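From the pipeline queue, job 12 of 40. The input is one protein chain; the requested action is below.

Action: predict structure.
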Amino acid sequence: MATDVSVVRVFTDADGRFGNPLGIVAAGDVDEADRQQFAAELGFSETVFVDRTESGTASATIHTPAVELPFAGHPTVGLSWWLREQGHPVDVLTVPAGPLSIRYDGEHTWVRARADWTPQFTFHRVHDAAEVAAADPSAYDSGHHYVWAWTDEEHGTLRSRMFAPMMGIAEDEATGAAAVRLTGELGRSLNIVQGAGSRLRTTIGDGWVELGGRTAADASISV
């Protein structure tokens, strides 16, 4: 029996280009024991399995092709946007790491999380955007590596790429968790251009990081 998978791209630019694809599946459609294999077969950098509960809330689990994650940025932003599009906007989205506060601001969807909920990333600050562009994914065969450079340090704007072979992801187009972690380490709000041109924004205050961006729908698939 086919399983329906909604597909969205998270952290697009203002014209709806770029963004990181996300698969969204109803939790009841795939047994918990089968979700990791299902995500691996789909091949998206992350797939979420969502359970809509009472009005204003939902819960989800998050899987890369290789592992389940307690929290991730692009799945939670994208899922929260999609839920609103389905007529079920949420104030709280619960993932294994904890409850996330959600808000909608025009085209942007924002999630509020703790930096320590994210995986440990190795951050490689390089000289400029050209050096970021020249990074070779094959040079990273373990761990989670985030290569970045300021493009306008005064205004918190940077260029980045992310390589996560341990998650089964050679290169991630837009990595919300890394943006949250780097925001926590630098202690300042950021405006990030990652990958081919995806756009992520963060703010920080009172020990919490808020992560936001635009999302666009792609064609659904059946598996």
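Job complete. Helices lie at 35-42, 73-85, 129-133, 176-186.
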